[in-house]
Design goal:
alpha/beta, Arc Repressor Mutant, subunit A, Rossmann fold, 2 domains, five-stranded parallel sheet, globular
């Protein structure tokens, strides 16, 4: 399959997408470039009004580093970054005027109402930003691969395993044979049995989970179509993935790797599942109704 890997695309309807892009490439930037990225995320409006010299001085780096940062975002130069940040700042300001929290970081002095507002805002934005950044062509290619596959194996460790179980359960309910593996040795062993046309999908928020990467690497060598779900399109998992589906999640102080990232992953795999089920719409509806009736019968029997 020749479909290019997914990227967090620009979206003219959501100017905040440049900040999505910054968060996506952040872990793969050099330390000096990361300082520029952090400054951009902390104050997009301020950076949009600053000269490249002022930004370089603020971040204790050189103008050349700022330009490298711009190119890492796919921008031609600093003027394009200023324009994109100005638009993003306007979007963020409108969001805050509508009542959204200024930051998702939870402070010791926050009221419980503040905590609820910050967590729910981060969760809601994770879903909307993921939808804005998702490359629908890559999603379509993943749906095609699932539809034609004889077998689908799902890999995920820790909290990502919960998302893998969710996808596995949904696929089984429409009669698509799949397996889910959350233990490294078992995952690699399963990947060793792949054949061309099979599908391996790895779920990793950071894109650095060794067990998941190793399983996809083996699957790739066996000729399977490899797909990853990650928050960082340039993370190591992308190197072993033919198709990369990216989420966009900003964590709150007490929820790193658990809340908004998982909500974004659930939303993304639900889109994947819905696309697969839609291909055999009548059969899928019948299968879902049949499995639901069986479960309801068990509930009635217990009563």
């Amino acid at each position: 399959m020749s479909t290019p890997r997914g990227t967090a695309r620009s979206d003219s309807h959501r100017p905040v997408s440049v900040l999505i892009r910054v968060r996506g490439v952040l872990p793969n930037l050099r330390p000096a470039e990361q300082r520029v990225a952090q400054a951009v995320l902390a104050d997009p409006a301020g950076i949009s009004e600053s000269s490249i010299t002022a930004v370089a001085r603020k971040c204790q780096t050189s103008e050349t580093t700022v330009l490298r940062f711009c190119r890492a975002l796919g921008l031609a130069g600093y003027p394009q970054l200023r324009i994109a940040l100005a638009r993003a700042a306007q979007f963020e300001e409108a969001d805050h005027r509508a009542g959204a929290p200024v930051t998702s970081d939870i402070a010791a002095t926050d009221t419980l109402a503040d905590v609820v507002a910050k967590i729910t805002y981060a969760a809601a934005r994770a879903v909307t930003d993921t939808a804005a950044a998702l490359d629908v062509e890559v999603l379509q290619a993943a749906i095609d691969a699932f539809t034609m596959a004889q077998r689908v194996d799902i890999y995920g460790v820790g909290a990502s395993a919960l998302v893998g179980e969710h996808l596995h359960q949904k696929l089984h309910r429409i009669g698509l044979v799949s397996f889910v593996w959350s233990e490294g040795h078992l995952a690699v062993a399963s990947a060793g049995l792949f054949s061309p046309g099979d599908v391996a999908i790895g779920i990793s928020h950071t894109g650095t989970t060794i067990d998941t990467i190793d399983a996809l690497r083996v699957a790739q060598r066996r000729g399977a179509t490899t797909i990853s779900v990650t928050n960082y399109e340039m993370s190591p998992i992308a190197a072993v993935s033919e198709l990369v589906l990216t989420t966009v999640a900003r964590e709150t102080t007490f929820s790193a790797g658990v809340m908004s990232s998982r909500i974004a992953q659930f939303a993304l795999v639900d889109c994947l599942f819905a696309g697969v089920a839609q291909r055999s719409y009548d059969q899928a509806i019948e299968a879902l109704q049949s499995t639901s009736e069986v479960v309801q019968t068990r509930h009635a029997a217990r009563v």
